[in-house]
Amino acid sequence: MAALAYTLGKREINYYFSVRSAKALALGAVLLLTACHAASRRYRGDDSCEYLLSSGRFLGEKVWQPHSCMMHKYKNSEAKNCLVDKHIVFLGDSRIRQLFYSFIKIINPQVKEEGNKHGNIPFEDKSASIKVDFLWYPEVNGSMRQRIKSWTEGSVAKPHIIVAGAATWSIKIHNGSNEALTQYKINITSIAPLLEKLAKSSDVYWVLQDPVYEDMLSESRKMITNEKIDAYNEAAVRILNSSSRNSKAKVKVFSVSKLIAQETIMKSSDGLHLPESSRDTNAMILMNVYCNKIMKPIDGSCCQPQPPLTLIQKLAFCFFTLSIIGYLIISLIHRNNYRKNKSCTDLEMGEEKKPAINTPNVSTLEMLLHSFCKLGLIMTYFYLCDRANLFMKENKFYTHSSFFIPIVYILVLGVFYTENTKETKVLNREQTDEWKGWMQLVILIYHISGASTFLPVYMHIRVLVAAYLFQTGYGHFSYFWIKGDFGVYRVCQVLFRLNFLVVVLCIVMDRPYQFYYFVPLVTVWFMIIYATLATWPQIVQKKANGNCLWHFGLLLKLICLLACIYFLSYSQVVFHGMLFAFIYLALQKRQMISEGKGDALFSNRVSNVLLFISIVSFMTYSIWASSCKNKTECNELHPSVSVVQILAFILIRNIPGYVRSVYSSFFAWFGKISLELFICQYHIWLAADTKGILVLIPGYPMFNVIVSTFIFVCVAHEISQITNDLAQIMVPKDNSTLLKRLLCIAGFFFGLLLFSAMQDQSRH
């Protein structure tokens, strides 16, 4: 009864929610979200610098997340490259002095907080000609005004960056009197025009006052209350904004420090000054505001303008536009012809005839244009997600729950969709699709959760990547060994399916081929496997069955390949996959293993021993990976030990007959589009080329992940279908036609390289 309910439940889900309806829903969601974000940008503005300086939240305790954009963590070498030949001035009280020290520690982490606390403090980095000064002006008064005025006159060189702010000393010295606030308003009103004048040629920031932790303040500071601080901040914002209302040059109000202080001031040592981690965050925000537009870091989307379209991107846009227009024209012509010939009735016979109006050439052209039409729309979505400043991006932040809870969810779904396999051979097609599927889902969760910072998870994910390479060796070796098909058609089909999407993304997203590292990796290994087996003497199963010596000949080839791999220091996992395929197929041919439904792979005793060894090996690796302390040392051992984990999994999955006879159709479905999922995640699920997370629905992290994942999976599935359709057209079986296509493709890549060289030359 339970089994019947289980089967009926799956049928109900599949009946009411097909792939076609899912894609239609995803398209509607994309159009709606695009319209909403475009309207929001138009209404609220699209200056991410404003968001960086004014809003954000903490991820955990120490990671600051600006609203709508990503913040880069600058290293000292990057900071020096950005600030070379620059003069920066921090002007204000003890809080500004703290910010000064945090800022210069980005340039030189060895700096110590020494010097006169109530005096000027200079800093200079001679290697990069960077000069940073702290000028002690604890009050907004005539002295501060005179200093700022000196920069507006021609006699003194203007600093490139000015960071100013003060108020707490005025509150303290004048015991929080209203007269002091009135005088503060007068003084800042007189300073505002000078700051605006400086802002025309320099970057000027006015730092608002952080709240205090009143319970910790000393008796001499008890008059500094948050109510007074708010009044001073309100006056500063109103006057500075009023001064710059009709001016393009604008003093930037640094108000985000208030938000940071509200969360961290309780950890202050005296209730007035921020803890070191909060000061460092403020300094890093300043660095991002100024340097992102200069250094253009991938994971620093705040304050970065949208990159201009390259020549190749413009040509791609024209191509996809023409494809859409061409498809619409052909569709209209076919529809009109169909209507005219819809009811062709033979008067004598009284039969309705439907003439065939689609010739093979026209239908092929229509399919080609239709595929490029869909691909053009999808690539537009890619560009909007990860190159245009339309959708928001956020930094990753790892927690154990963000990784392990989704793993449990997909495991439950995988078990729910368990079905019987069509065949019970070791690593049959359904089982390998299932294997690729669950591995890909785990890798996706690993990427979006930022789990690479947790070493045990990182080491296990490396095994999954190695398992993909193992499957590459196993699958291609098995095909060439059994089929003996070394024709150009087979090679071109594989290369097209592997590389088509990546080539398109290289063009549309302006990224080098090596950026999508996994595809170049498996492409090279496919060619190595092909070259190894296709070169003389070609040894295949049919030839080896006639003479056992050919098996030794093939082993000799594999040994030579292994020697080359070791000599070139490549990973041996692909070789292990090829060797496993050879041994397995040899055992299968000699009927030394039992692959019947429900049968154990070996005799009971052998099966039990191998299962025990496999389980112990599996657990031993997990224990070792969990105890890793140093990533470099563990990575050195990984190539040698990962194959043990892979072989252990294969034996555990295949020795028991009842386990080998079932598979998860849920995981297998994802396995069929695993390549597309891996590549598409770079731009439409993650963001900033995998460094961050795409935000379609801000403010609701869980709902955002659900919606973006749904769209991402639908897009990956559609691209898989487009690739398969285009492979049938672009890679024909006829050798003469295929040769012509190859010449055209070679010409295309030559032109692409030519345009790329021109593009690089224009950039430099």
Automatic annotation (TrEMBL):
This is N-acetylneuraminate (7)9-O-acetyltransferase. Pfam families: Cas1_AcylT, NXPE4_C. The keyword Transferase applies. It is a multi-pass membrane protein. GO terms for biological process: carbohydrate metabolic process. It comes from Cairina moschata. Residues 295-575 form the Cas1p 10 TM acyl transferase domain. It is found in: Golgi apparatus membrane. InterPro entries: Cas1_AcylTrans_dom, NXPE4_C.
